[in-house]
Amino acid sequence: MNKQKSFDKAIETGRLYLVPTPIGNLQDMTFRAIDTLKEAAVIASEDTRNTQKLLNHFQVTTPQISFHEHNYKERIPKLVERLLAGESVAQVSDAGMPSISDPGHELVVACLVAEIPVVALPGATAGVTALIASGMSAEKFTFYGFLNRKKNLQLKELATLQHKRETLIFYESPYRLKATFANMVAVFGEERQGSLCRELTKLHEEYIRGTLGEILSYLLENEIKGECCILVAGFAGELVAETENDWSDWSILEHIEEEMSQNRLNSKEAIKQVAKLRGLKKQEVYKVYHQET
């Protein structure tokens, strides 16, 4: 167990500050974030050139060190060493909150192991910003981030989310939007409500709301540029598991094959689902499937 009192004066180490940066509009930078960057001994930045523009705008002269997905393993020991020596480090990504589809998590874990306080500052994050203006339920949601780029793997990922009741949030490149929405239509159906948000907080901010089918049709006729966020409404239908055993007359093998066909699951996922629905041990269902196929 780890108990952290972030601002205990008895702490002798430095602190790791996770500092959010604007996702577009520089006016979204908070006073506290600016002060933290100024007071830190060093800023660990995903892209030092990009962050330098932000620092120049707010007259921050703190030195930077690059910290990204390609060098974090070699950077972490050096940063932890500085923190243990009493220096504070501010970590930033190119936009939004560190660790949310951006570098940061591994450094946080290393600091917790070394019993170094980790302090997160609140600030902008694209997914939640898009959610509250999407028109879809914001009470419960799942942030998924980026889907797999390969079609078959993306379809499998979407299939695992098909019956989620909460709003789904994804990030996507504008170059892959058409393919991704086509896959979403294939899995979720063209009538499921969705929202495509681009260039959030910037001059050309735009929301495209409608069914997934309508949005796909729009994309096939129009080119989209800029940073994009996709929201998909939660499943509102009736699950097989919520009916009175519609599968009761099926054999276990038939049930597995139906799960694979209707819900686009692989055999391992289908076996797990059938075992759950029937109240059986997964090993029992596994044996039946592999003995009969």
UniProtKB/TrEMBL annotation:
Listed InterPro entries: 4pyrrol_Mease, 4pyrrol_Methylase_sf, 4pyrrole_Mease_sub1, 4pyrrole_Mease_sub2, rRNA_ssu_MeTfrase_I, SAM_MeTrfase_RsmI_CS
**GO molecular-function annotation terms?**
rRNA (cytosine-2'-O-)-methyltransferase activity
Superkingdom of the source species: Bacteria
Concerning Pfam families, the annotation shows:
TP_methylase (PF00590)
Alphabetized, the UniProt keywords read: Cytoplasm, Methyltransferase, rRNA processing, S-adenosyl-L-methionine, Transferase
Provide the Gene Ontology terms for cellular component.
cytoplasm
Record-linked NCBIfam families: 16S rRNA (cytidine(1402)-2'-O)-methyltransferase
What the protein does comes down to:
Catalyzes the 2'-O-methylation of the ribose of cytidine 1402 (C1402) in 16S rRNA.
Family the entry assigns: Belongs to the methyltransferase superfamily. RsmI family.
Protein name from the UniProt record: Ribosomal RNA small subunit methyltransferase I
- Organism equals Vagococcus allomyrinae
